[in-house]
Input
Amino acid sequence: MVPGGVFMFNLILKVREEILNEKPISYEDALMLTKATAVEIPYLAATANEVRQKFVGGHIESCALSNIKSGNCSEDCKFCAQSGHYKTDSPVYSQISVEDMVSQAKSAEAMGATEFCLVSSGWGATHEKDFTAILEAVRRIKAETGIFVDCSLGFLTGEQMQQLKEAGLYRNNHNLEASKDYFEKVCTTHTYAQRLKHAQMTRHYGIHPCTGGIFGMGESPKDRIDLAFELKKLGADCVPLNILNPRRGTPLGDVEMLKPLEIIKYIAIYR
Output
């Protein structure tokens, strides 16, 4: 039978029953669910919400971000306006002060955020002075607020991860961005294997891993499901699902944005 109609509703019911009884969704069923239509997506979303309520409850954690250093990145990620390879209108500035980082964390907490993430452009924390300042900021935010401190600093060494853990870091973000097969179409200055290895390092140092990807870069439904199962294998306890917002001047600047129902469909399948 062609996917759709009664077949799709039955598949959603089957998957619902299995997952609520703690049987993981199969790759084949997940891939089949990508064929859900506008009529079927609300039922898929409702099922995902049942799964959420059973396994993680109805609470929402709010994370605020600070772009502590912007632009002039050496990497050529085709979605990113901060890459030094492209001419965009993204702001360019060096790392902000420790005082500013702490002040922004306090403001985020006052607005209801439960986590605060320090995000920096570039390959990684390659400048010792900047990294020392980040360590000081992490210590102060942990000491002066009740908010969890996260970071997204690119590629880090094991020693740097250990120092961040000792300073009080809660979570480290390092997204895979795309499936293994599609990644080289998104970035050529580093590899998928490098990203995967770095994401795997995080848990080794006792830091909570935050690893996800981006939808809407031209990837196929299969690519999205391949990424989902790679993330599942990785064991990330926080999975950001980003939706490409095309930036003028980047190679993906003219890509059409995903429709809302398409976004909801993949969030539901990932759940």
User: Anything to note?
Assistant: The first helix runs from residue 6 to 20. Residues 1-59 form one domain. The chain has two domains: 1-59, 61-258.
